[in-house]
Design goal:
The structure is a single chain. By secondary structure, this protein is an alpha/beta fold. Helix content is about 40%, strand content about 15%. The protein is built from 6 helices and 6 strands; from the N terminus they run βββαβααβααβα. The strands form 2 sheets. It has a 4-stranded mixed sheet with strand order 3-2-1-4, with helices on both faces. It has a two-stranded parallel ribbon with strand order 5-6. It starts with 11 loop residues before the first strand and ends with a helix. The N terminus is likely disordered.
């Protein structure tokens, strides 16, 4: 549990969240969640650097209403009772990245799509590699469900959080 600290107005507030897939680090601004990442040191440091650059602000531990809502929604998600996150997001990226990330959010709970499916839905059918890159640059794991994207042949393919976590999340969502 994170201590309640007043956040600096321009800071990204960080909180640790325990989950069945390991410790998660969440970040939020006044506008919404901007980070949800697995605590793997190499990936986490890269994502924190990206947050600091994109938001031109420092990061500090604390709490805010978006983080409180995220914790509740993640608990419900892992219990199998939440199928769609409603916590506000504060997403920073190129127009193409934002389009891809919205397409990810549009994948129904319990279903998967291929990189090609996402490229077509994003209006750029030949951009499968760019979709893969945008998918890998998603800073809000689980809520922006990049784990729902698989290879065209049905194989799981890569996942920044690791294939074991991807399989766990997909299996969780396929339960009745």
């Amino acid at each position: 549990m994170t201590a309640t600290l007043p956040a600096t107005a321009d800071a990204v507030v960080l909180a640790k969240i325990e989950s069945p897939v390991g410790l998660l680090l969440a970040g939020a601004t006044e506008r919404g969640i901007c980070l949800l990442e697995f605590s793997d040191p190499e990936r986490l440091e890269k994502q924190l650097g990206s947050i600091r650059r994109h938001y031109s602000s420092k990061t500090e531990e604390g709490s805010n209403p978006h983080l409180d809502q995220l914790k509740i929604e993640l608990t419900e998600y892992f219990a199998g009772t939440l199928r769609e996150f409603t916590v506000p997001l504060d997403v920073v990226g190129s127009d193409f990245q934002k389009t891809v990330w919205q397409q990810l959010r549009d994948i129904p709970y319990g279903e998967t799509r291929s990189y090609e499916d996402i490229a077509v839905a994003a209006g750029s059918p030949k951009s499968m590699r760019a979709v893969g890159t945008a998918n890998g640059q998603n800073r809000i794991a689980i809520v922006v469900p990049c784990h729902r994207v698989i290879n065209k042949g049905g194989k799981l393919g890569g996942y920044g959080g690791g294939l074991d976590r991807k399989k766990f999340l997909l299996d969780l969502e396929r339960q009745p």
